[in-house]
Amino acid sequence: MAAPGIDDFLQMLSAERGAAANTLAAYRRDLESAEEEIPLLAEAREDDLAGLGKAWRDLAPSTLSRRCSALRQYFGFLIDEGYRQDDPSGALPRPRIRRPLPRLLSKEQVEAMLRQAEEEAAGDDPAAVRMLTLLEMLYGSGLRATELVSLTLDMVPRDAPLITITGKGGQQRMVPVSSRARLALSRWLALRPKGGRFVFPSRASHLGRVRLFQLLRELAGRAGLPPESVSPHVLRHAFATHLLEGGADLRVLQTLLGHADIATTQIYTHVDAARLVELVNARHPLGQAAGQRRASPLAPTRKAD
Fold first, then answer.
1. Which of 182, 209, 229 is at the close of a domain?
2. Residue 182 is among the residues annotated as catalytic for this protein
3. Which range marks the domain in which residue 221 is found?
4. Is residue 1 part of a domain?
5. Is the pTM of this model over 0.70?
6. Could you tell me which residues come within 8 angstroms of residue 283 by beta carbon, excluding any fewer than 6 positions away?
7. How far apart are the two ends of the chain, measured CA to CA in Å?
8. Among the options 173, 180, 233, 270, which is catalytic?
């Protein structure tokens, strides 16, 4: 029987795992790059895959790691479909990478951007009010860029404190909308061009991620910040970090961000060992009891055995 190809694999990812369009496009690019080196990719042997290390030696470790991950999943799919009994992916290179932490904006820097956006939106210019709304929702709700620009009108009930977001893998979560963001959103909906189903429409469908990126950097420059320091992801990271600094629970933060694994939340929010120890000491009943015993001069001392 013919081996399942890349299209079959991507259809499985879409149907069974609910992979997003951006994820599917990335897998396609990675697998097609491998196919350029190994034309009969589904029949690749360990020697073939071992040779990819040399062919891809100039790639960044993160890119190489991602491509190898795509290949491992593809060969796992071939085995599940009964096309192969062996798994040659053990011969793939295994680059050691350390996940970089996103850039971070201070509270003062975010406040500078908000002040600038508020000043520009004072006259109800539609573009300025839209910019203020985008900024308030990125920083106030921690949305991903794609989640924000693809919001539809039926997802945003008027004056509702929560909106339902469909994130990565088709997973839905409830996200709170701050009173500031609700006010900005109400202003924008009153000025928004009529027609269409998207909250932030454009001539094609909705505001694009690239355009959102450009608008944020332009606003940052006008607010006196280095434009290269600002992006939608940086504002999402600021949302998470500033909530954690304010005492937010990691599990709550995980839910707000839509992370499947709390380990991702810990990396994303700069959680280190010292912070975790402090969190346990401050929140855990035993940690509080220990602090009270140390602080009380009346606490009994236990004799040594």
1. 229
2. no
3. 107-229
4. no
5. no
6. 249
7. 75
8. 233
